[in-house]
Amino acid sequence: MNSRMPLIDALKGIAAQLIVLHHLASYGALARAAEQFAPQTIDWLYGYGRIVVQVFLVVAGFLAARGLAPQGTPAVIQPAGMIWQRYVRLIVPFLFAVAIAVVSAALARVWMQDEFIPALPNIWQFLAHGLLLNGALGVPSLSAGIWYVAIDLQLYALLVLLLWLASRFSADGVIRGRVALALVAVLAGFALFFFNRNPDYDLWGLYFFGSYALGAFAYWGSQRKQMLGWMLLMTALTIAALLVDFRLRIGVALMVALLLATARYTGWLERWPSSSLPAFLGRISYSVFLIHFPVCLLMNAVFVRFLDGTVEQALAVFLLAWLISTLAGWLFYRHVECRQFTWSRRAHSSGLGRFIFEFRRG
After folding, report:
1. Where are the domains of the chain?
2. In angstroms, rounded to a whole number, what is the distance separating the alpha carbons of residues 238 and 221?
3. Number of Cβ within a 10 Å radius of residue 361
4. What is the C-alpha to C-alpha distance for residues 38 and 314, in angstroms, rounded to an integer?
5. How far, in Å, are 3, 88, 267, 310 from residue 14 at the CA level?
6. Which helix (H) or strand (E) holds 263?
7. Are 51 and 252 in contact (CB under 8 A)?
8. Which in 94, 188, 201, 215 has the greatest CB count within 10 A?
């Protein structure tokens, strides 16, 4: 199994860059001034930039299926241990990023006043963020975009639990596989036709499970002819949901899923693009996603405090903030995200990690 997939790296890298531009176009005096220079571009980034989150959702589902049930048949599933491992994998860089965001917000408050600057946090906010429950509990976020980390954990947990239920259904592997795929498809149907149509659910993983499941079926349906029908079923289900209530985000998710399925089926998922730049941007995409908002805060503060606020200056600072966000993401990747694997192993081998992982045996 190829460990690197250049197309996925490219998708993640481009999506992360668009998220950075979306937030630069959405917050602060810098966005307001830049809009005077390129109003259509800034309006597009503000209105549509967030839709690339669907790329992360589909890719996450694709990779989760690859890791949890590559043949579509769940084997040994230990839900508590797997969810704990995923939590630790996410929380280490997440907490570092939140700490940097808190410090950056404190510095920004010295130089400017703007409603997009997070307020001084309290203990409850820190606890909610540490548990990845800040969105679900209605706690104000300490950084932009980090709601996605909690959603990622919820989606992974949902898929793990569905595969675990299927693994307990029968000793026959073929039956287990069919039950697993059916359970995922049914929950995806509920998500597409009900949960995703109600914005009140957008703090919960169920709202996004349709896109996540599209990614999972893109992986499962692209490897064997007998599983292609499941991908076709999921495609038809998604098209039906779009006919009932068209949502651009779901249309984008479907296109990304079909792209991944086609790329894997034809074999160029692991071969294209050959440039090293997409691979680099893909590797650092999670770090860029986590760290770019503190950069946005500080660059807005610099723009307000030290510059005259002209349109030309706004464009220069806007582009510089974009570049610095990528550089900061690379540094964060090298010094935090790469090292977190060691910390994750230590946490997993700790008493709490072993207890959770072995819970089912008790």
Report:
1. 6-361
2. 15
3. 6
4. 11
5. 20, 26, 21, 29
6. helix 248-266
7. yes
8. 215
